[in-house]
Amino acid sequence: MCLWYNLGMYRIGLGYDIHTLCVGRDLIIGGVKITHEKGLLGHSDADVLVHAIIDGMLGALCLSDIGTLFPDTDKQYKDAESILLLKRVYEKIQKEGYEIVNIDSNIIAQEPKMMPYIPKMREILSDVLKTSQNQVSIKAKTNEKMDAVGQKLAIEAHAVVLLKRIGG
Ligand code: ZN
Q1: Residue 134 CA to ligand 1 centre (angstroms)
Q2: Over 60: is that where the pLDDT of 143 sits?
Q3: Ligand 1 centroid vs 29 CA: distance in angstroms?
Q4: How many of the other CB atoms lie within 10 Å of CB of 4?
Q5: pLDDT tens digits for 74-127?
Q6: What's the distance, Cα to Cα, between the start and end of the chain in Å?
Q7: For residues 93 and 118, what is the distance between their CA atoms, to the nearest angstrom?
Q8: 167 alpha carbon – ligand 1 mean position (Å)
Q9: Phi, psi dihedral angles at 71 (to 5 degrees)
Q10: Would the CA dihedral through 50, 54, 59, 65 be positive or negative?
């Protein structure tokens, strides 16, 4: 367990998430509804990118992970908008005395194409986090048709989050 007084000026966190694609669900990534015949399966809206960012933030301050904070056995998080969970997590981070320096992330999806949606995702995320858009980077890749992601069975996301002590 981390103690606040030895956390230091800068903290970095790494987040990863993956969700299965299935029919009958909306595809929500980075807070944006994406036109696709399948969506991601999950207890919340299954926003894989936002979940990776949340885990990066929590990890940076040793605050456990999204599954511990918002358990999937808890009905109040059923179909929850992940972007609102992100807002709550960032409030917690700020209460701990830290703010975002920058976020870098990858969405890995064989289809659909993420590129057209990335500007809107960056706009939404920087709005929720009250940062400028140049503090939020989102990149997109396919998995070259390999493994579950490449076979269009799932979409995954990775994020690193750098935090700095407020006023530091
Ligand atoms: Zn997730």
Answers
A1: 25
A2: yes
A3: 11
A4: 10
A5: 888 787 899 999 999 999 999 999 999 999 999 999 999 999 999 999 999 999
A6: 23
A7: 25
A8: 32
A9: -65, 145
A10: negative
